């Protein structure tokens, strides 16, 4: 099976990267990028899409599969003899243990400068077993300007056989100087049917569950996988929407804000708790500490560093959980708006159809638009480090007043 076979909804982008990986003589020469390539409109056979370059930027909305495509391309570049991706290379890339692969990502709020410096230093090494040395930067938009400038220097003077693959929601999230040194491939939002088909193929869930998960996730592949395989996640999502629809006064709005925050926390814990325990067990094992044995004082600093990293990841996971709730609320009032405009054939939250009809008849479309604006404002405030509880309370109280 080719490395591209497990991707979905991005045929044009896949064709671009496949052609680049298969280009004869690409090992010897890496061309500088001269223009962005729109995967949604550019034919795969055009020369700009088939040429190889030292730096790529994959952009697209959350859940469009940026990282999946980046690692598929990395596998194709690292596979000896075949750009379709051999099985051993694929396993090493999936485990992030390939000797010629460097992955720069963050589970905190931002990518640290030290992490970027380390990745830049590793990018200077020659490939050990593959055709290239590949550096994948997930969430490249999470670098502050001074950190981005460290990356910029590496892109300006790249080694001959090093390829950078950056991922970000849009080109505007990166410095103009970085954008001018990468070739951009823009992804489209995959269709609900394509995501549902992927869920069935990967997880074996029933078609009805796969369709519902893909629809409620609004084609966000990662979120759809979670909804399809976790009944508790589906229940938590439905509870958040019903809480918003059941507001009757300021007191219920304040209580609902507290409940939404608790749901986001529960969802974040469900994602991180098992991983945290496994990481701690692995570190203790590597340090020679048996289960149940106290940690020697000389080793406690290493455990403390692990705990600090896990706390930062928990903060990031909680923020992401709150943002997912706000995205779900936006989809709810988008459905209300569609019903008010007579477009009820495009409803996302079909399971709440009776409640949506009642909400649509209770207010004019202008009020629904104002409610959606309040949700967008709450997202901006939380991004600006306003206390999530206060931002959610202000949002829900403003929805009551309208």
Automatic annotation (TrEMBL):
Pfam families: DNA_pol3_delta2 (PF13177). Keywords: Nucleotidyltransferase, Transferase. Residues 32-51 are annotated as: Disordered. One of its GO terms (biological process) is DNA-templated DNA replication. It comes from the Bacteria. GO terms for molecular function: DNA-directed DNA polymerase activity. InterPro entries: DNA_Rep/Repair_Clamp_Loader (IPR050238), P-loop_NTPase (IPR027417). Its EC number is 2.7.7.7. Residues 36-51 have a biased composition (Low complexity). PANTHER family: DNA POLYMERASE III SUBUNIT DELTA, REPLICATION FACTOR C / DNA POLYMERASE III GAMMA-TAU SUBUNIT. NCBIfam families: PRK07940.1. This is DNA polymerase III subunit delta. The lineage of its organism: Bacteria, Bacillati, Actinomycetota, Actinomycetes, Micrococcales.
């Amino acid at each position: 099976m080719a490395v591209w076979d497990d991707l979905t909804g991005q045929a044009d982008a896949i064709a671009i990267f496949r052609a680049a990986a298969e280009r004869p003589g690409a090992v010897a020469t890496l061309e500088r990028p001269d223009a962005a390539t729109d995967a949604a409109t550019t034919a795969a056979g055009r020369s700009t899409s088939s040429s190889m370059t030292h730096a790529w930027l994959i952009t697209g909305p959350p859940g469009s599969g940026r990282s999946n495509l980046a690692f598929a391309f990395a596998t194709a570049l690292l596979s000896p003899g075949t750009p379709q991706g051999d099985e051993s290379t694929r396993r090493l890339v999936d485990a992030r243990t390939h000797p010629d692969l460097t992955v720069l990502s963050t589970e905190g709020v931002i990518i640290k400068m030290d992490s970027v410096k380390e990745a830049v230093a590793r990018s200077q090494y020659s490939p050990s077993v593959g055709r290239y040395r590949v550096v994948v930067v997930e969430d490249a938009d999470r670098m502050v300007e001074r950190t981005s400038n460290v990356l910029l220097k590496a892109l300006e003077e790249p080694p001959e056989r090093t390829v950078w693959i950056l991922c970000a929601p849009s080109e505007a999230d990166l410095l103009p100087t970085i954008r001018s040194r990468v070739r951009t491939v823009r992804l489209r939002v995959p269709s609900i049917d394509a995501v549902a088909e992927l869920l069935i193929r990967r997880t074996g869930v029933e078609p009805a569950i796969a369709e519902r998960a893909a629809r409620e996730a609004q084609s966000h592949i990662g979120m759809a996988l979670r909804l399809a395989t976790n009944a508790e996640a589906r229940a938590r999502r439905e509870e958040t929407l019903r809480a918003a629809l059941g507001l009757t006064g300021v007191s219920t709005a304040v209580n609902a804000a507290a409940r939404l925050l608790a749901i986001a926390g529960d969802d974040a814990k469900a994602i991180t708790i098992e991983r945290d325990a496994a990481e701690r067990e692995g570190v203790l094992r590597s340090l020679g500490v048996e289960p149940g044995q106290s940690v020697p004082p000389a080793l406690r600093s290493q455990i403390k560093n692990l705990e600090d990293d896990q706390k930062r990841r928990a903060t990031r996971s909680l923020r992401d959980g709150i943002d997912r709730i706000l995205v779900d609320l936006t989809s709810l009032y988008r459905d209300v708006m569609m019903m008010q405009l007579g477009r009820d054939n495009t409803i996302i939250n079909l399971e709440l159809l009776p409640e949506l009809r009642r909400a649509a008849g209770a207010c004019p479309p202008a009020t629904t638009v104002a409610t959606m604006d309040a949700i967008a404002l709450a997202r901006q405030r939380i991004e600006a480090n306003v206390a999530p509880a206060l931002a959610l309370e202000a949002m829900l109280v403003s929805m009551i007043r309208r």
